[in-house]
């Protein structure tokens, strides 16, 4: 599974330039996207934007940040789920509208963006890139509503899917979540500023106080009069992506009052209860598997040890993947500690199995390092359906659990045993009602209806 995007915004009531704060916020959200980064700032008259391909600290330096002056700002880190990885698709999207210039950042995917894009093209609107976010910005720009916030809510009524959006005008900051609240978004307070962010870890880095989450179907508007809110649309149920808890969010973030590390630890404990096995050590596939491995070790009383070391500096690079790099495969990222695993019965904890190829390579690595037995435990249920809401999983044909039984997967990844956490215990570990979570890739119950054309596409293509 690949990360999605991270959004960040700040409204400073003092005329202090917030570009550096956004920079640090994006730095904390870097795990959500490493392909491009961007910041736009308003000084009340003009909006200036700087964006580029690469990591936050590759895109920005002192010079580029010092050129971004103003008191309102939005920022974005991107992993491409729709649209290719090119500068035209980097965010913020900045466009001129009859409401003035706006800058928009978005996390999520619209399931009806192709239809909306075509409707806009029919009206003579042209596009620079290929993202849903540009469709959203163009829809707002072409609204017939008089007030800007009405243009936003009017636009969103036509948009189906997942979106946490932050929009800046010259003098306002708007944060809005889709009616099901599939992607996270929270509000913080920092001295004389309001901050909005995909995750609380970005508030912490600035020393901002967590205020609350933006509710599903809520629009929050911040201007010189302060913060006000409206519920623009309420669906029957909230459906926060369960994989925020399993994999995406940083362990030090808090979502719906649940610390991510704690929930992963509990997933590991339940996993040990459901799938015990006699072994000498518990280890994790770093890094998202670590809290669950610790939970498994605590429950099973089998010692937790580090058995795999991750090269933290392997991110997305501009180097085209060559055959040589492909052959190195998982070795480029992970290296076993031979002395730790040699001669032992090992339990490896990972958060998910998507295609199975990485898991198989990891199992082979551990065996080559001398492990006597290798048992794989997964801290989520089998992933049997594609995601249409902004997570880059795989097509149905590529999802191993959609095509093989657990025993078939065990044979494919060459482990001595394999066990998945049940859906019931996943939900228990998070301790939120199952109905308030999106579990679609695990149980097929999509909170937003998926158009048939898109469904048939995702059978074979990601
Ligand atoms: S389908 Fe899966 S990955 Fe996609 S939003 Fe729902 S729970 Fe998250």
Automatic annotation (TrEMBL):
Gene3D superfamilies: 3.40.50.2020, Glutamine Phosphoribosylpyrophosphate, subunit 1, domain 1 (3.60.20.10). It is an enzyme of class 2 (transferase). The active site is at residue 5. Pfam families: GATase_6, Pribosyltran. Mg(2+) binds at residues 288, 350-351. Its cofactor is Mg(2+); [4Fe-4S] cluster. Keywords: 4Fe-4S, Glutamine amidotransferase, Glycosyltransferase, Iron, Iron-sulfur, Magnesium, Metal-binding, Purine biosynthesis, Transferase. Its EC number is 2.4.2.14. InterPro entries: GATase_2_dom, Ntn_hydrolases_N, PRTase-like, PRTase_dom, PurF, PurF_N. Transmembrane segments: none annotated. It comes from the Bacteria. [4Fe-4S] cluster binds at residues 241, 387, 438, 441. It catalyses: 5-phospho-beta-D-ribosylamine + L-glutamate + diphosphate = 5-phospho-alpha-D-ribose 1-diphosphate + L-glutamine + H2O. One of its GO terms (biological process) is 'de novo' IMP biosynthetic process. Binds 1 Mg(2+) ion per subunit. Pathway: Purine metabolism; IMP biosynthesis via de novo pathway; N(1)-(5-phospho-D-ribosyl)glycinamide from 5-phospho-alpha-D-ribose 1-diphosphate: step 1/2. The keyword Metal-binding applies. HAMAP family: PurF. Catalyzes the formation of phosphoribosylamine from phosphoribosylpyrophosphate (PRPP) and glutamine. PANTHER family: AMIDOPHOSPHORIBOSYLTRANSFERASE. In the C-terminal section; belongs to the purine/pyrimidine phosphoribosyltransferase family. This is Amidophosphoribosyltransferase. It comes from candidate division WOR-1 bacterium RIFCSPLOWO2_02_FULL_46_20. The gene is purF.
């Amino acid at each position: 599974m690949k990360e999605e995007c991270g959004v960040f915004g700040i409204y400073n009531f003092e005329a202090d330039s917030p570009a550096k704060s956004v920079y640090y916020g994006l730095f904390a959200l870097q795990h959500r996207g490493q392909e491009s980064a961007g910041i736009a700032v308003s000084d009340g008259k003009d909006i200036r934007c700087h964006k580029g391909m690469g990591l936050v600290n590759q895109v920005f330096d002192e010079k580029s940040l010092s050129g971004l002056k103003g008191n309102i700002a939005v920022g974005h880190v991107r992993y491409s789920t729709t649209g290719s990885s090119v500068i035209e698709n980097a965010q913020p999207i900045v466009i001129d509208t009859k409401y003035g210039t706006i800058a928009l950042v978005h996390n999520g995917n619209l399931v009806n963006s192709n239809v909306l894009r075509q409707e806009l093209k029919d009206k003579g609107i042209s596009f620079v890139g290929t993202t849903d976010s540009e469709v959203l910005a163009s829809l707002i720009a072409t609204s017939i509503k008089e007030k800007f916030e009405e243009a936003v809510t009017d636009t969103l009524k036509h948009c189906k899917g997942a979106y946490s959006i932050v929009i800046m005008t010259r003098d306002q900051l708007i944060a809005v979540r889709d009616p099901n609240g599939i992607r996270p978004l929270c509000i913080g307070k920092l001295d004389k500023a309001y901050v909005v962010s995909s995750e609380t870890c970005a508030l912490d880095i600035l020393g901002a106080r967590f205020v609350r989450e933006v509710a599903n179907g809520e629009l929050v508007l911040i201007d010189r009069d302060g913060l006000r809110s409206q519920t623009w649309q309420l669906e029957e149920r909230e459906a926060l992506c369960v994989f925020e808890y399993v994999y995406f969010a940083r362990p030090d973030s808090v979502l719906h009052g649940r610390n991510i590390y704690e929930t992963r630890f509990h997933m590991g404990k339940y996993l040990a209860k459901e799938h015990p096995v006699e072994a000498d050590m518990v280890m994790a596939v770093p890094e998202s598997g670590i809290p669950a491995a610790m939970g498994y070790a605590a429950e099973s009383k089998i010692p937790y040890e580090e058995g795999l070391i991750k090269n933290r500096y392997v991110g997305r690079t501009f180097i085209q993947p060559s055959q040589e790099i492909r052959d190195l495969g998982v070795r480029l990222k992970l290296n076993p500690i031979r002395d730790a695993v040699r001669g032992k019965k090992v339990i490896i904890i990972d958060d998910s199995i998507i295609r199975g190829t990485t898991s198989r390579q990891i199992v082979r690595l551990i065996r080559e390092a001398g492990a006597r037995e290798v048992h794989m435990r997964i801290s989520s249920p089998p992933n049997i359906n594609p995601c249409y809401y902004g997570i880059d999983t795989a097509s149905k044909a590529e999802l191993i659990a959609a095509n093989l039984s657990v025993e078939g997967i065990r044979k494919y990844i060459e482990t001595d045993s394999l066990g998945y956490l049940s859906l019931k215990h996943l939900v228990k570990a998070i301790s939120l009602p199952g109905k308030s979570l999106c579990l679609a890739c695990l149980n097929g119950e999509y909170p937003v209806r998926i158009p048939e054309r898109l469904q048939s596409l995702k059978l074979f293509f990601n």
